[in-house]
């Protein structure tokens, strides 16, 4: 086999260039700390790093979403804490009103409750500081509650939609509360009954809080109305189906004075002296009107109505105070339920954050194992490549010194 001088030189140069290229690649790996200087270094690992990096990016996005949800829930919690304290004061004021016997003092308490209603209305219309209302459902740009100054009626303008935020791969969370679920309903699952009296009653009958005696009774969940008529006095019990408003009235029963009336699975106690034409109701709480602002409006009007020296007016006032007290207790319990639900979501966010942080560490570890250079191995390879380059250089020098016409002494 004949090897030309040109081929010898080319082979030597190619060998040195290859060694220099390998050496330069090692310098790049060690200098940057990255094993994958280009995708060609390890195509499979390069593909895996892209997938892991995308997953890591999504995980960071979920963490940002959780932070937003947590901030919204914290703002709502602070507002509901103020609402809770205001409700405590309102309930105390109503209890106090039952112990006051002058119209003037009751009118003063009515003013106190009017201010409390304005405060609660302001809390119900709280914003997040960016112009978005906290309790208006999907309609964050719509003020949830408005007060008609002429009628005193407070109306809800939001909707019942949930502001869902994707806080994890498989979890969407409502980051807000719906106003009607806070101020206009009873806690889901509550089965108590609430009483009320007809505003036109002319007797002094007072109705107490109903007692559920048989939750499996055929009338369970129904509403009741007790009507007094006749002389001698008797009463009838009308069972009202809340779904259809269909009424079923029982046979008249003689009224023999204050005592317990069996409505059918529900008992109520009457004191005082009702008269013919008087009417009382007992409504299952899920079917009753428990609008917080209407309850406050009712009690304000009752406190502003003169009652001094008038037993009938005093009885009407006491029935309103008792009815409103029952409804405000329902509102108070429901607000605590909503706060508990918000606290549960915040606790879940903390748990998701902890899991997200662990996943993020795992992603970084995987990326590190795929991308980062092993300095011990790279240093060994660097020493080996340097030795190989020196050998290639030395070999090329030997070839350069070779001559077919060298003279031997």
Describe this structure in words.
- This protein has 409 residues and is of the alpha+beta class.
- The protein has two domains: 34-190 and 288-372, f41 fragment of flagellin, N-terminal domain (Up-down Bundle), CATH 1.20.1330.10; 192-284, no CATH class.
- It has seven helices and 14 strands.
- It has helices at 5-32, 43-97, 103-124, 179-183, 292-304, 311-371, 375-401, and strands at residues 145-147, 154-156, 164-168, 171-174, 193-197, 206-207, 211-212, 223-229, 234-240, 247-249, 253-254, 259-262, 266-271, 279-284.
- The strands form four sheets. Strands 5, 8, 9, 10, 11 and 14 form a six-stranded antiparallel sheet that branches. Strands 6, 7, 12 and 13 form a four-stranded antiparallel sheet that branches.
- Strand 8 (223-229) and strand 9 form a beta hairpin.
- Helix 1 (5-32) packs antiparallel against helix 7 and helix 3 packs antiparallel against helix 5 (292-304).
- The longest helix is centred in the C-terminal third of the chain and has 61 residues, at 311-371.
- The radius of gyration is 41 Å and the shape is elongated.
- Residues 404-409 have low confidence and may be disordered.
């Amino acid at each position: 086999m004949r090897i030309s001088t040109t081929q010898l030189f080319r082979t030597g140069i190619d060998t040195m260039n290859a060694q220099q290229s390998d050496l330069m690649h090692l310098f790049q790996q060690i200098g940057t700390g990255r094993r994958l200087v280009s995708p060609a270094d390890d195509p499979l690992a390069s593909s895996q790093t892209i997938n892991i990096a995308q997953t890591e990016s999504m995980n960071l996005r979920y963490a940002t979403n959780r932070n937003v949800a947590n901030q919204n829930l914290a703002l709502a919690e602070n507002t509901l804490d103020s609402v809770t304290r205001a409700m405590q004061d309102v309930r105390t004021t109503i209890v106090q009103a039952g112990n006051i016997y002058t119209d003037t003092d009751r009118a003063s308490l009515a003013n106190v409750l009017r201010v409390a209603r304005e405060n609660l209305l302001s809390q119900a219309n709280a914003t997040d500081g960016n112009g978005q209302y906290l309790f208006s459902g999907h309609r964050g740009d719509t003020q949830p509650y408005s007060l008609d100054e002429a009628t005193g009626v407070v109306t809800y303008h939001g909707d019942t939609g949930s502001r869902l935020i994707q806080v994890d791969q498989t979890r969407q969370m409502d980051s807000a509360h719906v106003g009607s679920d806070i101020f206009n309903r009873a806690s889901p699952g509550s089965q108590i009954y609430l009483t009320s009296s007809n505003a036109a009653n002319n007797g002094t009958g007072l109705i107490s809080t109903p007692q559920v005696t048989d939750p499996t009774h055929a009338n369970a969940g129904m509403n009741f109305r007790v009507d007094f008529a006749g002389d001698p006095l008797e009463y009838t019990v009308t069972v009202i189906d809340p779904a259809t408003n269909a009424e079923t009235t029982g046979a008249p029963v003689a009224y023999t004075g204050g005592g317990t009336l069996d409505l059918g699975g529900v008992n109520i106690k009457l004191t005082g002296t009702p008269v013919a034409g008087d009417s009382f109701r007992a409504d299952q709480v899920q079917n009753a009107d428990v609008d917080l602002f209407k309850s406050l409006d009712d009690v304000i009007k009752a406190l502003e109505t003169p009652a001094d020296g008038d037993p009938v007016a005093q009885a009407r006032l006491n029935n309103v105070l008792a009815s409103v007290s029952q409804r405000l207790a329902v509102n108070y319990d429901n607000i605590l339920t909503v706060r508990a639900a918000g606290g549960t979501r915040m606790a879940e966010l903390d748990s998701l954050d902890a899991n997200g942080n662990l996943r993020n560490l795992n992603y970084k570890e995987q990326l590190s194992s795929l991308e980062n250079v092993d300095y011990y191995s790279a240093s060994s390879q660097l020493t080996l490549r340097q030795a190989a380059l020196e050998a290639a250089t030395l070999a090329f020098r030997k070839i350069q010194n070779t001559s077919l016409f060298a003279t031997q002494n």
